[in-house]
Specification:
Strand content: under 5%
CATH architecture: Up-down Bundle
Order of helices and strands: HHHHHHHH
Helix content: over 70%
Largest sheet: none
Structural class: mainly alpha
Shape: elongated
Length: 208
């Protein structure tokens, strides 16, 4: 019975639960950090000189840009994770998100914001990587519950992020809120680096 409760990565039940808690917090912080700033992108674009008549168009393009590049990049990073391991892919995406947020905080034109959003879609993917890591470390009989629990992390972040973001943008401005969002992502990254013991090596026979 005890053997049936072990994950394929060799983690004990207690380690699986700790891993799930760490990844939940990481997903929460990632979702909350983006939710701090994305609803207020029109403020940044307006500060960068976008005319009111074009603000809606620029907002839509900037928002959609990340998803446009993610369509092509996500399968590539998924194959890379199969080759090198789930945790390295998670760390890579966390670093990319933090860098993108700092870059957007320092953007000096709408075109720079657009480029950073394109890079965001091409390089990030922390939350899907966290789901893949859980799927590789939790046994099948507990996988549904684990994934369902993990899903509440991004949902909670999406709820609290806009509320806190509205307060922070009002107090500090949109650029400093971007810096705070980047700091939240770095904290999530540090948690994963320090405490997450998920599988880091590719499985035998897996090819990218």
């Amino acid at each position: 019975m005890h053997g049936a409760m072990e994950a394929s990565a060799g983690l004990s039940v207690a380690e699986q639960r700790r891993s799930l808690a760490i990844l939940w917090l990481g997903c929460y912080l990632t979702s909350a950090s983006w939710s701090l700033v994305i609803p207020f992108m029109p403020i940044l674009l307006r500060q960068l000189g976008v005319a009111p008549d074009h603000l809606a168009t620029w907002t839509g393009v900037v928002f959609a840009a990340a998803f446009a590049t993610a369509i092509f990049a996500s399968p590539i990073w998924g194959a890379w994770a199969d080759a090198v391991g789930r945790k390295p892919n998670l760390l890579r995406s966390g670093i990319a998100i933090a860098v993108v947020m700092v870059g957007m905080a320092n953007a000096h034109s709408p075109w720079m914001v657009l480029v950073w959003r394109l890079l965001n879609g091409a390089l990030s993917g922390f939350i899907p990587a966290a789901f893949a890591l859980v799927a590789s470390t939790v046994p099948p009989q507990r996988l549904g519950r684990a994934l369902g629990t993990l899903q509440t992390g991004p949902s909670a972040g999406a709820i609290t992020g806009p509320f806190l973001g509205g307060l922070l943008v009002q107090l500090w401005g949109i650029r400093w809120t971007f810096y705070l969002a980047a700091a939240a992502q770095v904290f999530a990254l540090a948690l994963v680096m320090r405490f997450e013991r998920g599988s880091q090596s590719p499985k035998p026979g897996v090819c990218c």
